[in-house]
Specification:
Structural class: alpha/beta
Number of domains: 2
Strand order of the largest sheet: 2-3-1-4-5-6
Strand content: 5-15%
Distance between the termini: 32 Å
Shape: elongated
Order of helices and strands: EHEEHHHEHEHEHHEHHHHEEHHHH
Largest sheet: 6 strands, mixed
Oligomer: single chain
Number of strands: 9
């Protein structure tokens, strides 16, 4: 049997926001106007085709003191008190909302009672708490800290201890995966009969998260491979056209790489069930800077010392990379046959093409090629941006309805994650880079699995950190 919990409380206390966050469904209607929810709606979490847990979003209490008066006057079987109340008033408009919200309780749902911790306890709240106590159902109280206004948590806890099996502070606008798991762990305490079922729910959530991280790891690696190996070329008919061709190629190259990254970000959003089209990043995020901007290359990627250490593995022109990787607008390297345009651009190569005719197409004259990218730092820029976006997404609660993230994660946005890689991890990255760019004469079969393991382990570390 699927565990079921009815989310109850006064209007505009954050019930729908809580359900949205717990079910990872950002399409649930949430608004500042009281009474947005008028009928009870079931939201079922399904994993691998199986229903795992059900949360019921309910209307808010409207006449709790009158409802409590009836409950206190009831002299029948206490186990049937909710059923008798609904039978008595199901056709009475005055008690319509209170009957509606108690329906899931009547069929056996556990109770999650939600209040806004930024306001004081009122008489109506005390009446609601007593009604829920008299139902005899297992119940947890949630203090929803929605804002940074006044905090009445201490007063709420004092009253809750008289009426509830478990109390928890839970900000539905900020709660991430770890906080959701902690809340489910707390739910296990409200009734011993539910411990086993909720333990299975928690295990299913954790296993599903691991699957998501493995999928995201594969998506990130696929994006990096495509970005590093991408090249574009165009013939040059005269020396006058050379600079124009280079500029045109550079624009096309950067546009293609940015498009690959945007597609990756959309895929990550989809994996973690963020569907709101209008989602925006904070103005403070490093991801607001262009992928090829000077700021991006100054903040993300390896330090000079770390790049120097990678030189022994990558070889070749790594010294030139180090010299230019922090110089500003020319963050690539030059070869004898071409140059780099723009921060972090791939190598231009120019060569003569033998004149011949093949399949009706003439080849001849000078040709410029941009890519594949031979700059090791570019690998780390791509890794950092993907990991930072991942951290944005997994830490954005589904119950939030403001569109952009708030400043506050500046600690992880001032620099990327790659500077924290161990020497062993950077060694794996360097070998992966050589493999993908065709710089390795000996193909090591274990490099790709090791790189996959590295990216997945970093994703798991980010999850645990938050």
């Amino acid at each position: 049997m699927v565990p079921e919990f009815a989310v109850l409380g006064h209007p505009n206390e954050g019930k729908s926001s809580l359900v949205s966050t717990l079910t990872e469904d950002d399409r649930i209607k949430v608004g500042p106007i009281p009474g947005e929810t008028t009928i009870s709606r079931d939201y079922i979490v399904t994993i691998d085709g199986k229903d795992i847990i059900r949360f019921v979003d309910t209307p808010g209490f409207q006449v709790p003191r009158q409802t409590l008066a009836w409950f206190k006057a009831f002299d029948g079987d206490p186990d049937k008190i909710v059923d008798r109340f609904i039978d008595a008033f199901k056709n009475d408009p005055f008690f319509a909302d209170d009957c509606e919200l108690l329906c899931p309780v009547a069929r056996g749902a556990g109770i999650i009672y939600v209040v806004d911790g930024a306001r004081p306890v009122r008489d109506d709240d005390l009446a609601e708490m007593e009604i829920l106590r008299l139902t005899g159902r297992p119940r947890m109280a949630i203090i929803n800290s929605k804002t940074d206004r006044k905090d009445y948590t201490k007063d709420w806890k004092l009253e809750f201890r008289k009426h509830f099996n478990c109390i928890r502070v839970f900000n539905s606008n900020k709660a991430n995966f770890t906080e959701r798991i902690k809340m489910l762990e707390s739910l296990k305490a409200i009734d011993q009969d539910w411990e086993h079922a909720l333990s299975r729910v928690i295990l299913a959530f954790k296993e599903d998260w691991q699957k998501r991280n493995r999928l995201v790891s594969a998506l990130i690696i696929q994006n990096i491979e495509k970005s590093l190996s991408f090249s574009i070329s165009e013939p040059v008919t005269s020396s006058y056209d050379q600079e124009k061709v280079k500029e045109k190629l550079n624009e096309k190259y950067q546009a293609h790489i940015k498009d690959l990254e945007n597609k990756l970000f959309k895929q990550i959003r989809a994996v973690f069930k963020h569907h709101l089209f209008e989602y925006h990043l904070s103005e403070y995020s490093i991801l607001k800077h262009d992928l090829f901007s000077k700021q991006t290359w100054e903040i993300l990627g390896l330090t000079k010392g770390q790049l120097a250490a990678a030189g022994a593995i990558v070889g070749g022109s790594i010294g030139a990379v180090i010299d230019t990787a922090f110089a500003g607008h020319t963050l690539g390297v030059f070869t004898a046959m071409g140059g780099v345009l723009g921060a972090g651009s791939a190598l231009f190569g120019g060569k003569k093409i033998t004149r011949n005719k093949r399949a009706g197409i003439w080849f001849g004259g000078d040709k410029f090629q941009l890519g594949p990218n031979k700059n090791l730092q570019f690998l780390y820029i791509l890794i950092d941006r993907a990991l930072i976006y991942y951290s944005h997404i997994i830490n954005r609660a589904h119950g939030r309805r403001d569109l952009s993230d708030q400043p506050g994660s500046m600690g992880i946005e001032k620099k990327g994650y790659s500077t924290g890689f161990t020497a062993s991890q950077r060694n794996v990255c360097a070998k992966f880079f050589k493999l993908v760019t065709g710089s390795s004469f000996i193909k090591e079969k274990t490099i790709m699995p090791k790189f996959e393991e590295l990216i997945e382990s970093v994703l798991n570390d980010i999850t645990e950190k938050f």
